[in-house]
User: Fold these one by one.
Assistant:
Number 1:
Amino acid sequence: MQALQIAIPRWNITELNGYEPITTFWQDFSIADKFGDKAIADTYRRAKSEWKDNYKYWTELCLVLNHKIWQWHERDNQRAILYDKLWREADAMTAEWSDEEQEYYFEITD
């Protein structure tokens, strides 16, 4: 049996805005990208199930989803549309957060 090798694109978020990732969401979604839209949706469902109550992780998830939209928008518009749908759902969930949690979200994502 041959080992599956998946090249994960580098996420240059630290160079862009100084943010240091605290999760493996970028890697998780990059792996899911290789297996298609169902894998992407499943990865989102699992992340939502596990981390929807952790505002720092959820903030990073929103950041990853947004960057994935941009990663795919010119190469695979359907995939970009899927990431946009997931990002909009994830972003909308932050409206219920406390002021402190929303402040963190906007500081990281702006």
Number 2:
Amino acid sequence: MKLGREIETSKPIILIIVDTLMDAPLQEAIASGKAPALKFLCETGSYLPQIVAPFPTMSVNVDTTLLTGTYCNEHKIPGLVWFNKNENRLVNYGTHYRELWKLGLSQAIDDLLYNLNESHISREVSTIHEEAEMLGKATASINALVFRGHSEHYFQLPKFLSRFTKLNTKRPVLAPRIFSYGRLSKIHPSNRNQHFWQKAGVNDASSVQQFAHIINTNSLPPFSIVYLPDLDQRIHKKGRMDLIGIQKSDQQIQAILNSFGDWESVLEEVILIVMGDNGQAWVHEKRQQAVIDLRGILRNFQIMRAGKGPFHGDQIVLAVNDRSAYVYSLDLEGAPLRALAKTLYKDKRVEVIAWKDGNDIIAISAGVEGEVRFKRGGTFMDEYGQSWFIKGNGDILNIKMNENQIHYGDFPDVLARLYSSLHSHEGEFLVASARPGYEFAGEGSPVHLGGAGHGGLHAQDSLVPMIVTGTRFLPEHQRIVDLKKWILTLLH
């Protein structure tokens, strides 16, 4: 296992993202014989069990960080749900049908299919697809939410969706040269695995079907990203240690390996990377215990109703990202951020609350005394080479400081991740993260009682495994934000 060694790079790179793949259940699945493909890859490659995901730990933010090599202060996607100050509305890329219906189904689908990649992701950053194309190297994106590239494609909406929306599908999206997105944009002509009850083709079987077609037609480009979404929903329902979901994901990876003939040949022909995008933290079974009802806690403030406003008199907006939440103040005099933070602070289930104060960021934690202030620059250095000024109680963020060195605990890379979220978009807001066992709820938010959720700062939400085969050249730092640079180096 070598870092930074000279490399040879004629082999295509395949990146398989298994949504919510985590180390502990993966190890148990391998030990119990439920994951032979992943076992083979672990044994023949390098296994990195603790890759740090960005915050909030929601797929749309994670995937954008992966493709752009930046945190959300640069790529400008704050999470799955956020308040767009310029358009004076709540953006939701797809949490639950109840929330989407209230916000307007057409708007939500427009945001997911078009605005996310075409206008919300900053043009100041570039994706792996865009940079590879500039090098003359084709790329492929299979069922990934974030896909911005240089080639024009057109979505074909199914009839059932066209009836309920007023989308203009005659406009193109810019994506990689080889592009598949459910049944809306297919490579393989078959409708198998593409039906409405199969999430319109955004499922593991469809992803593998489309990618196997690329392999079987000798069309494999220098870089491909293949997204396997199914495990995420099983973990939400069954909990962190569900092994059946990993077993099913492994079967899909077996199918990809089988497309090459024999598994050993894969090691010679390609660089294969398999990784999770975020973890999930366990959630209590009982609603009264598990759910942090933000509308109830903040009932003394006038809260904007979903899809209705903001109107005159509305003081705050809630943007719930499962185990984290943005709380926006529309009235700094009547609803100052510190007052909102102090209100949340009374609930011991809220682990971290942070907001900007001039150039500083202030963080507090329910059950921990005092506050901590930090900002970029200063004399303290962390393991990623980032320098910080820190003053106050470091226990709030579970950090230890020794001889100007910062050591992170339960919140990996917490300073950069909080900084990025609080500088990710315009507005006056705070961000809150729940303790394991709990999740936030607003108006119509999904909850996962007895299962698991993500979005938070905690290590349970934030650490994912990565398997690398076909090369011994590994990323300098074990964070998702560092993978783009590494992948482009492999492509060169």
Number 3:
Amino acid sequence: MLFNSIVFLFAFLPILLTLYYLTPKKYRNYTILLFSFIFYAWGGVSYTFILIGSILINYLFVKQIEKNNALKKTWLIIGLTVNVLIIVLFKYLDFLIDNFNILGAVFISDFSPVPFKNIVLPLGISFFTFQQMSLLWDVYRNENTEKTSLSNIALYISLFPQLIAGPIVRYNDIVGQIKHRVSSISLFRSGIQRFVLGLFKKVVIANTCGELADSIFNSSYDSLDSPTAWLGIVAYSLQIYFDFSGYSDMAIGLGRMFGFKILENFNFPYISKSIQEFWRRWHISLSTWFRDYVYIPMGGNRNGSYKTYFNLITVFFLTGIWHGATWSFVIWGLFHGFFLIIERIGFKNILHKLPKGVQWFYTIIVVMIGWVLFRVEIFSDALLYIKKLFSFNLSSEFSFLNYLNNERILVLILAIISSSLFFMKIKEILERRSLLLTKTVQTFMDLGVVLLLIISIIYINSGSYSPFIYFRF
């Protein structure tokens, strides 16, 4: 079930909200837990049993870690291994088989290829598996001093706003809210505003940019001129940002409607002036997860430069493969890891001496080249596309104009402004002065939200099926 679907907007969400607030407070968690399973089952009933089984298995590991001080490290390792095996089975098995077959054909003359298993990827498995692994780590570290319960763990893992595509929530950040949370009109109101903003970002901005990007990326790269190639990657860069941040906004907004305060996942990443800063602003819940559960346990930057570089490359190899079982994602991750190492070696010191505009230009170019590697599945095609970017050839017919119309131009302008430093400053001013806003201004803001909702619904009715990009991860 998609947040941007009619059935969710006009059936699932209103019914759940009504039943939730009619339910006595001590039973509300069970109401939202039941509807979270219904939400997940909408995408495939059979995989709901995998989700439930995964929750039960991890609950057993948690209880063993809690009560066996002498063996808790052993139980942690077993629990983490089981979670890794689950995600390998469903997400990476065919990828491993494919590479095994390639190597076998190269080195063994009479090699018989292993058949593919064609296992369908359960929705959100990368997200909820990482949440379960962080739960095991945190219980092992005794960061959660209270004993866990099955119902709390089940709701933590399956909470529908963030179940499919994040943010990746830490148990310690939300367990207090699971046990006791206070709903208010102001929190509910801000939840609606945030949800509608995310909906608009997805169905109007991301989908429009996506149509433009697809029309260029699905064409023959041999015939692309440089402006068209740049138009395509700018459109895709905006699409993936507004698609994913739009989902995160909707998840955060939905959480607020039920009294949960889910942490932010994006902070204007396209204003970054280094790749290091970009990863502090992009998919924050994932980058901090790898920092806390992989990079720091490996030693972080505490054991010399070469060990630090190895740790960074390992983390970004895993970051790439987390996104998908193809070498294009691995190359994308290693590409970012390479520039992080270059910045650590000394380039960042040089960068800081340059004008801020130059720092930003370097970063956005690197990020967009990275998005080519991310978007194009075949590496040779990605290299051809990048070559077209820097060929600087302009066709006499200005062919890039054929991909534009008034709607796309307007949305591109809106997207660029909305992801800019200028817009971030306006947002910060409004947030600081939110308590000082007059009722008249608040009324106009509410009317603006209603207008965005109406526009979004019009786009939903007139558009085609458009799942979120990160649903496939």
